[in-house]
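hiii so my PI (J.) wants the whole complex modelled not just the main chain, which honestly fair. so below is everything: three entries, each one labled with what it is. i double checked the lines twice but i was tired so who knows lol
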Amino acid sequence: MKKPITLFLVLALLLFSTSALAAYNDYTDYAQFPLVKEGDELTVSVVTNRSEQYGKDPEDQWFWIWSEYATGIDFDVNQILSTAMDERKSLMFASGDLPDLLFGIPLSTSELVRYGQAEGLLLDLTDYITPEIMPHLCNWIEAYPESIAYCTTPDGKIYTLPGYSDFYIQGDGFCLMELNTEWLAEAGLETPATLDEFTDMLYTFKEMHPDIYPLGGGAKTPLNDPRNFLLNAFGYLWPELQDTVNSIGNLPSIRNGEVVIPAYDDTFVEFLKLMNQYYTDGLISPDFFTTDLTTAYSQLAEDAVGAYPGITYHALLEKEEFSKWVDISPLTSEWNDTAQVGTLNKFKFGYVSLSAAVDPDKIETIMRYLDYFYSDLGGMYLWCGPSATSSDTLGIIGGYMVTDENSYVWVDTEGNQIDSTAFMYGDAGNIAHGFGNRSHPLENKEAFEAGVTNRPEMRSYYYNKDNILPYSYDPNFGSGAHLLNVHKYVEPYRAESFPMIVYYDEDTTLAIDELRSILDPYIESEVAKFITGVRDLSEFEKYQQELEDMGVQELLGYYKEAYKNYLEAKD
Amino acid sequence: MEATVVHQSKADKTINAVNIILLSLVLLITLYPLYFVLIASVSDAYETAKGNVFLLPKGFSLEAYANAFKESRIWVGYRNTIFYTVVGTFFSLILTIPSAYALSKRTLPGRSVISIFFLIPMYFNGGLIPTYLVMKQLNMVNQWYSLIFIGASSVFNMIVTRVYFQSNIPEELYESARIDGANELCTFFRIALPLVMPIIAVMTLFFAVQRWNEYFNALIYITKNNYLPLQIVLRSILLNSQTALQTIDTSSMDMEAIKNAARLFYMAETMKYALIVISSAPLLIAYPFVQKHFVKGMMIGAVKG
Amino acid sequence: MFNANSKTSRLHEKTLARRVADHWQIYLLLLPAVIYIFLFYYLPMHGLQIAFRDYRVSKGVWGSEWVGLKYFVKFFHHPQCWKIIRNTIVISLYTLATFPLSIIAALMINDLRSMKFKRAVQMVTYAPHFISIVVVCSMITLFMNQSTGLINNVIEMLGGSRVNFLGTASYFAHIYVWSGVWQDLGWSTIIYIATLSGVSPELHEAAYMDGANKLQITWHVNVPSILPTIVIMLIMSCGRILTVGFEKIYLLQNSLNLDVSQVISTYTYELGLLGGQYSYATAIGLLNTIANVLMLIIVNAIAKRVSDVALW
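here's the output for the full assembly
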């Protein structure tokens, strides 16, 4: 880091130490800091991601300034733009050009197997996850034991650190469908509970408004593709992971207790028949396959949609607009008796790793540093930075404040409000948002006794422990309304499905990747053809045969094996 | 070329007319999408998406431009790109013009061999990873001069230039130069170069535009924010708007922040067009001035020819 | 080409060494390019061998296991491989077929008598080249949209019924190629116009005197003057017969046109940079290159025989 920053820090500290002492709510429980003794030097090279919108240079980010100040480590930070992530990550591993610490570079299960287990490019962290070196993490693992299992590769080693996101009410998901309650009332209908009722409702909407297409969304916006929601109605259950959607039915799912690949399953033809009917009768737009998010939102904004498969308040920002949209519970149908939807994954992993080539003398120090983020306060720093009453603002930022109306604002050093997201993703540690303690307090006894039960309340505690404001969702805000809706209509129907995180060994990973690279595009194009009628539905069996020739049975075999292992491990 | 002949046959007049009509059509068809980019950059995003923008902007607003220029990164991007373009083009010309001249000499021993030496890499590329590793060893990665050297050569341009030398400089000229006692280097600089001004102008333009639009090499070889060229900055500004709503944990954000993110996304469409104007405007504005030299160069070529 | 037993009289024959020494200044002019190409292109070329190895980062290029033609064979076992190759060839041949358009356009522009109009046409036709491919594809999607697209609006106005351009696989190649013409036509005329400007006006005048009309002048004076350029451009285009750039395809792909829009470059990109299968991706790239080079050699040989102009 540059000298001017250090100088500035010293000055800032001197300037603020007096005033800070006066309002000093000292929650800096980092007893293990600093990690580098006076006079010693330790440099750790880091590669981290940089948000396109909120990214700041590391010299200006509170997170790295504070990290250096607290630990004494000299961080040499390089950033990768999130849009260049895939290419640069690949390049980094392929050329073996890795930094000491990968912070916020997301690695999937197959990448962990490939780069960690097979190539040996990542450091095995198992020996360092001990109460002496990482007390907070060990504590945290006791509360979430599955988390470490999710980080363990088939060779029994651990190449990454876990995370768990437990805000208060979980309300997101990809199998959402929201209804225009105004139109529903106009049509005199009740909220549909079965697939037939849903279809009838769409036809009624079409009669009411013949020039529009009642079911919104499109194929080029995976998170807003109505096929996800509809596929559920046929009895297919799959876990909702971070970035995977099952709009073409190619992900392993459970149906009636069996592992299936929906696109290959016999009942899938009924789904295709339904979609074909929707397409031919104008219930979905003829441009369905080229509709992107902006087009979908524009239709939503001009009230040209009766049912929308996504989060409407992202497009409708005013209360009058979004409050008429309500989420709908999963449907039952002729082929499915139980209304259910796959579990939402809250466990994260793969965001923090170390290179296997790191200098052995540095490892323990780095691990101790990372351990801090499993403490209650450390997790808070990752998420939203320090509160305005903490000395850790270091005089370069204002921190967050809790107003009397129980809303949170982030301020700069003069007390002016700043963009909260800009702060959280630019200055706080959310660059590694799948890492660390993001749940309610685990260790802070005081907080417990003060009645803190969830993460937002903990935020309030760190601001002013004498006045913890209970957190609730405000239906006047789009986000609040939406979460309350999902909590009411969707959460009760979560059911166990195909395991969320599965590790396959190296050869199987390669085999699966290859099979999927052949099958996925084929399924995508054939499903589109069936839906638009380019290919007749009577050819469904022929299509199944084609998939078999491409190896779908083999792929299914791997999934069945994984599921079997998963069930056995549970017992 | 202004024709100096006064009278024209009827056939010629018809041909001229057809020529003008066809080219006018081409002009209009080419022009409309360009015009569309301009008006879309100041129109309301949803109106554009719905296809309501045709001849005039709808919902006029300069917000996309304001948003883009708010970012100080843009100015750094401009500065870097101008630097890379000017110095890089000059370097590319050094690589290309002399070699093209050399290869145009039919008497050069090993001419075929050298031609093949240059041609092979155009097709047989070692691949991204080995190239990256070599660049790293040559200290070309993440430096202020990286983008000047990387991607500087174009064998295609070299060949085209070589052909131009061959067709436009007759052997007799070299003969008479030799008789006058000029050596090869002297011939090149004093006699050959002035005669090929048009192609040099063309090559300057080619290299400059290629440098100006450079994206992929910067993506791979540059991570320091201070060295990023304009295209990367623009693309990143655009992409951040497009993904504004997807990369954040909205359940923990307040309404204000969500509104900001949503507005950003909403503006992404318009931003796309605004960014094109921002990134191409300098080139398009500079072009008429370059074209003057073009024409001048062409005149010189014509007179001498 | 240097030939030791040339037809020149033995008395005037020089040894190779002597000839090389004579040309030392020319070699000097070549030096910058040779050094550059050697450093930046030949040094990394050893990386091509990963097509024949099982590349493992930890073992490096030389240490990875030799597997010979394994990945080449693998590609031909891919169920879609012939479709991918066919798609690539169709698109690139179609693009090649539009090659004459820029020549014709250049001749037409060159013949314009009004400087103002000429400059206007040039300026407008060059501009699309500067527009990024992302925006071009955006506009294509917007204009060809079935429900709200401009082109369909015009069709409906003229009494026809709306067409799903983007959702019909058979339109894909047309959309791809003609939008490419829109974007690059003007730009590709630059080379020809620059060459045409070198044609002396005296030749034109002489032809007029002889009573030739415009078409005849074009055919007998202008075209021959740019013929070398045309031949070279044609040879080089043929040498890219299996090269279809991936970015534009990627942007225009959707579920309904995958059958015709999957090309070699999109496939290798997904495999290599995104999927980490470098050996496989390199092998496919190498196959692609070999096909291109064979084509190049053949066409170059033909050109040498038919005209005086060739790449080497």
